[in-house]
Every structure is written in C-alpha cells, then in structure tokens.
Fold:
Amino acid sequence: MLFGGLGLFLLGMERMSNSVRNWAGHRIRIWLQRMTRKKGVAVIMGIIFTILFQSSSAASVVLVGFIDAGLLTIKQTVPILLGTGVGTTITAQLISFNIGKFALLGVGLGFFAGSFGKGWVKSAGNTLLGLGLIFYGMQIMTTAMAPLKDNPRVADLITQLENPLLGVLAGMLITAMIQSSAAFIGILITLGQAGILSFESSLPLIIGTNIGTTVTALIASINASGKARQVAFVNSFFRIIAAVVFVFLLGPWEQLTGTLSGSDPARLMANAHTIFNIGMLVILFPFTGMVARWVSVMVARKREYQPRHLQYLNVEAIALGDMLMPILKKEVLAMGRMVYNMVDLCLIPFLSKDERAIVKIHKEEAKVDKYREEINRFLVKSHENIQIDSWSDESFRLLHVMNELEQIADIVSVNIMHQAEEWLKGDMHFSEQGENELKEYHMRTLKQLNRAFHLIESWDPGKAMRLKKKYRKYAYMAFDLEVQHYKRLFSGAEATVGSSKAHMELINLLRVVNSRATNFGRIVLLEEEDTLQQGE
Structure:
C-alpha cells in the first residue's frame, strides 16, 4: 500500500506538472523575457513560474538553459531564483489542506475532461486528474503508515533525524532523488498526519529539501557554459545561506510557525516551508545585484565547445517540452552555422585548387548529421507524452528547418564535392568572367542563408515574404548567368569550353541551396494563409 500510494502521489505530481507546462510553456517563456527587467517583477515571475511548473528544480533547469542560450542575463535570473523558492511553497500549501475526501471525484472529473475536452478544458481536466491522484495517494500512504508509529525501529530512526545535521542531509538526499521539494514536503505531511513524524523533527528535513532541490540544476550546468554554471551556483548559494541562518533559528522558527498554524501537522509543515523561503527572499533580496557581480567573477565564464554534443540542452531538461523551444532554436541555429560553413567553403577547391576544403566539408557534414540526430531525438523525447495534434507549430517548423539544413549539407558534401573531386583531377580553369559570376552568386546564396537564419528567431511573415522575393530574384539571376555562360561558350573561349560542365552544375546547385533556404519561409507563409482561411 505504501509504495502504491507513493507511486500515485508522484504520478499525480508529474501529471499536474505536465498539463500545466503544456498549457503555459510558451506563455511563460515570453513573460520571462519581457518582464524581468525590474527585480521585484522578476521575483514575482519566479513565483508564478514555479507555481505553474510545480517544481523549483524544473524551473531552475529551464533558467540554466535560458541563460546558457543568452535569452536571459544573470542579473535578470538571480531575483527569479529567489522567487522560485517561494513559488514551490504554494504547492505544499495546497497539499496541506484536508481535501482528500474529494480525491476520487477529482480523478473522475479530471479524467473525463482531459479525455474528451479540448483546449483549456482538456488542460484543466488533466490538472484536476493530477491533483486528485496526489490526494488519493496521500490518503493511501497515511493509511499504510499508521501502524508504523508504534514500531520501535521507526521511532528510533525518527529520533536520529532530530539531529539537525542528519535531518538536513536526509532531506537533501531524498529531494535530490525525487527532484521536487514540493513532493518531499507532501511526503513529510503524510508522515505527520500518520503520527510518525513530529513537527520538530521535520524542520531539519525541510531545510535539507530546500538545498536538495538545487542538485538538478547543478547537474544540468555541468556541461553548460560558464554563465549557466553561475546561475546554478547562485541558486545553491542562496539556499545554503538561508539553511545556515535557519539552523541557528530552529527555536524561533518553530515558535513562529506554531503561532501562525495551530496544531495541525500538515499546516505546520507547509507553513514552515513557506516561512523558510519567504525568509530567504527577505534576507537576500537586497543583495541580488551584488551576488550576480560576485559570482560572475568567481565562476569561470568559458568552456570548451564539444562539437559532437548539443551546446545548450541536456537530458535533465527533456521533460520540459514546449517550454524549451527558444533553446531548441539556438541548437538549430548552431546546426545552421555548420551548414553555412560548408556552403562558404564549397568554392575553394574550384578557385584555389585546395583539396583541404573537401576534408573540412566532410568533417562538418559529419557534425551536422550528428547534430540533427541529437536535436531530433531531444525534440521527439520531450514531446513523447504530448499528443501529436497538441504539438506547437514551432516544433514542426524546427523539424522542417532541420530537414532543409540536412538537405543543403548533402548538396554540398555529395553533389558539389563530387564535382570538386573531378575538377581537381584535371587542369581546368574558369574564365575570369565565369569565376566572378560564380563568386557573385555564391555570395548571394550565403546572404539568403543568413536571411533564413534570421527568420528562425521570429517566424515573421514579413521576413518570410522578403526571403521568397529574394529567391525569385536569384532564380532569374541564375537563368541570366546561364545565358551569359552560353554566349561565352559559343564564342569559343577556351577556358569556358573546358569548365562548362562544372560551371553549369555549380550555378544550378547553388540555386537549389537558395531554394532550400527559402523553404524556411514558405512554411511560415503557408501557416499564415491557413490562419486567414480559418478566420474567414
């Protein structure tokens, strides 16, 4: 019964968190970037952020990814971290109220609303289902634990946890394993309601859970940039400072909580958790700017780039779904830069007779394949609990863009490099005019790629239309270049005759690269047309 109840409890936490993230993920990421310029607003955003995500650990992982991708600054993020601590107490407060008798009603209503509803009704139903599972799991655990209060071994273990050091350590380890301080507080409340754990014994555990919740972000920052490590360090630093303060204030903390809460163990533990985090906010809020500057100096800013691994995302962030779309954009743009380098190098074997460029291009192509594979796996894995019709438009756009990038990489590494290898075997040269035409069209192709990359940042229909217009211009330009080439060919220019096949192939292949880059915008324009038709 005990493990079954715990499983239902954790399943409910996960279900509620996932449904809220799926509904609010894209909204929260916009709010975070727009409303964090003032410290007070940033704290409020941290509170709202963590209420919606039901976990300060999950919130911290997102912030690490955002700072690593350059979407937030350290100065903006530090106050948010204080807010996440307060935000996670709201879930504990909700759990502490005795509404378990409505648990199965919530499960039933939530299931039918989540299964047959649409839009916000579906999201609300899944949230209610998760909440019902939480309370039903707590009921089962309370019933299963009741006989344990008379067990001398359990009593001896609880007595040992009254030692502040052991209690803090136990709270840290358990929270690090389940990766949610709110879930651990729920377990403590269940132990208290079963008469196994006294309020006094729970205080060191509550301190420990507030430190343990930072472990996930610390792990997430190991392979991240220096700035992301700074954020994870600040998160841990704040909570350790608060833990030290509250260890020396156990008596006053206990008295204040008792005065505000009465004798109900659930309310006592939830309020103690809230007081700890509000106390941390009050103590450390005035020093957020100073801490941000200090940690910038103390923690290394740079790391070596590992080309075979994603730069900003990590396995701990997989469960955050659509929330991490801005960071996935950064990864796709990093993949795009590799493809851009390939296109940039592709004329060197023809113009300089340098076969080293071919080797470099094949190495870049291997990186692109690996990158596409990892991003694709991450994107699919992060959406595996979301029905395909609920995927965001941005998810499909990124899949589309990655496919186009891989196609461009293949054009360069297979088609153009095949021509390059044949070119290097002979003693051919382009005419001066032909060489200048290739350079000019190559430059226009690189510009079109850059426009496509800028489009990824905003998916602006205006930019997409400009991309499409530029392609039309470049397609006509390619036709004109072919005409100019044929005129030189028919005039009998020796260099033109020898290089004709390679020249025509390069113009055509660069035009195809232009077309592939333009496809970034075509999907945006098609979506806009569908939206207008639905509006009519």
